[in-house]
Amino acid sequence: MKYYCNPVNINYRYQFNADPRQGGKLRICREAADPSLICFEGRYYIFASMTLGVWVSDDLVNWENHRLPEELPLYDYAPDVRVMNGWVYFCASRREENCDRYRTRDILNGPYEKIKGNFPFWDPNLFVDDDGKVYFYWGCSNMTPIRGVELDPETMNPKGESRALIEGRPAEIGYERYGENNSLLPASEAVIEAKYQAFVKAQGVPESMLPEEVKPLIRGMFSDRPYIEGAWMDKHCGKYYLQYAAPGTQFNTYSDGVYVSDHPLGPFTLAENVPYSYKPSGFLTGAGHGSTMQDEQENWWHASTVRISVNHDFERRVGLWRAGFDKDGELFCDQRYGDWPQRVTGFKQDPWQTPPWMLLSSGKTAAASSAAKGCGPEKACEEDIRTWWKAAAPGRSEWLTEDLGQVFRVHAVQVNFADDALHIPCPGKIRPGTQARYIEEAHTVTRYLLEASEDGEHWTVLADKRQAETDLSHDLIVKEEGIPARYIRLSQMELPYAQAPCVSGLRVFGLGEGNAPDEAVYTAKRTGPLDMEVEIRPQEDALGFNILFGASPEKLYHSCMVFKAGPHRIGALVKGRNYYLRVDAFNECGITEGKCTALPAEEEE
């Protein structure tokens, strides 16, 4: 059996951003986003923004990174990759210039044949229908819709006029609302202009010196209108599923919705199960702007963007989720325990699986050799990728230890390293553009020693990566047979640029020998057309709860994991629709399903 754990365990390259929308100040972080996941000649490939390369796998678990040719637009966002007639077609986004396309029969070795671009676009997606016709979708804006057009398969020139296909409707579709937890509705034009002028003044740069293409982007930052972006098309049983992302990559509610049609250019109807990819809580949040495909065993998978957005709004990772279509043709993703270790069997499997092991480390006691102010060792046990323990200084003598409170059978440890406000010179030349940057080309490494102990005195090595030549900042160590352990120790850490060790999650998974928790007791009510509140009664035997909701008791496809009892607001509902929900309780020993509750649509006044 093979296992993976989100974020996907790959190398994430450092970005040296001089983004004019964020004042032009150099901001440094790792990034990979907007993944196009494809299967080509029996192998899997992930193309993602700002990575200079492609990840390749034979099993969707173990990935190797390969550099792509320099002639490809590797500094352009949202690479789109599709297979057509034995060729792999590649393009990426360039808002103000015609975007070229490239094709190859050999992804890793090339050559790549250039197809001259004929119009500008952002967030592209190419779709090849069963009849050989080719369609193209694009759009990334909080001001304009996603559009689609048929293309000539030889020249890639549009055949006819494009059509507007998806526009934002945040007053009716809750998950499209801007802000953390879908909390904001669009601002007025007067408010937008006032905030724009204040922002420009604060930068100390005359407005006349700002590039024209940047001005609408800055205004858009203050509109509180959802970005409607990241189109991806799939066909299933004669229906066309046009997927899109909203409301913005920097929010915990970054999601993928889907519209359905009998024709590739519509008209489209909002699907019953939306957002189909949605992860607003847990260690990782955000599951928007991705791609959906079938593997060699006919299992469906959805790859998407995971947000961190601390050092920069575009500090992001790649997530991989089980997906599928139910008997009624509804597209779904399984994200109930989506940032816990998952099995990959290599054959046809049930997309709705219980996790093989339970989370053991949340809220447990941690100690460290030292800690920077505000970054204590307890941060490594908070189940939040956006907070971290940071050592007071660089050096391999620093260590971090977790006490699980008792001996458990430990099966996996995920070691998550973070970056904390790096201040180093840019090692290369910043490339100009809307999001000016330099992508680190040098090979960086991440090294550590991971050990386990039953008594805190005698230690067993789980992974010795002190001489590793890899750069895996979200590394997963699996001991399938399990080992008894109470203490987990991370030491001998070496991070890129000689920075002080930072750990956002030393996450431990295994099984306890006690009982699963009692059934959760909760109440739920609709607090508006787009919102509901779920109040969970405290219980001592539960580590956390999973709030599941959907269109029927059999289709509780959406999930929201919480680690505290009390009231929880969910703002992802669609106006006028009925919902059902259930609250499951979990601890280190198992999961207990709750009772299902009906939540009817709010009546119109």
Question: Helices, strands, pairings?
Answer:
Elements: E1 2-4, E2 14-17, E3 27-30, E4 33-40, E5 43-49, E6 53-57, E7 64-67, E8 80-84, E9 87-91, E10 101-104, E11 113-115, E12 125-128, E13 134-138, E14 140-141, E15 146-151, E16 163-166, H1 189-203, H2 214-221, E17 228-236, E18 239-246, E19 255-261, E20 269-270, E21 285-294, E22 300-307, E23 316-325, E24 331-334, E25 342-344, E26 358-359, E27 365-368, E28 389-390, E29 399-417, E30 437-439, E31 447-453, E32 459-465, E33 474-494, E34 502-511, E35 522-528, E36 531-536, E37 544-550, E38 558-562, E39 566-570, E40 579-587, E41 590-592, E42 597-599
Antiparallel strand pairs: 1-25, 2-3, 2-30, 4-5, 5-6, 6-7, 8-9, 9-10, 10-11, 12-13, 13-15, 14-17, 15-16, 17-18, 18-19, 19-20, 21-22, 22-23, 23-24, 26-34, 27-29, 28-34, 29-33, 29-34, 31-32, 31-33, 35-36, 36-39, 37-38, 37-40, 40-41, 40-42
Helix pairs in contact: 1-2
Low-confidence stretches: none
CATH superfamily of the largest domain: Glycosyl hydrolase domain, family 43
Oligomer: single chain
Supply the number of structural domains: 3
Question: Which class of secondary structure composition applies to the elements?
Answer: mainly beta
Question: What would you note in describing this structure?
Answer:
Helices cover 4% and strands 42% of the residues. The protein has 605 residues and is mainly β. The chain has three domains: 32-186 and 224-316, Glycosyl hydrolase domain, family 43 (Tachylectin-2, Chain A); 361-504, Jelly Rolls; 522-599, Sandwich (Immunoglobulin-like), CATH 2.60.40.10. Strands 26, 27, 28, 29, 31, 32, 33 and 34 form an eight-stranded antiparallel β-sheet that branches. Strand 12 (125-128) and strand 13 form a beta hairpin. The N and C termini lie far apart (55 Å). The mean pLDDT is 95.
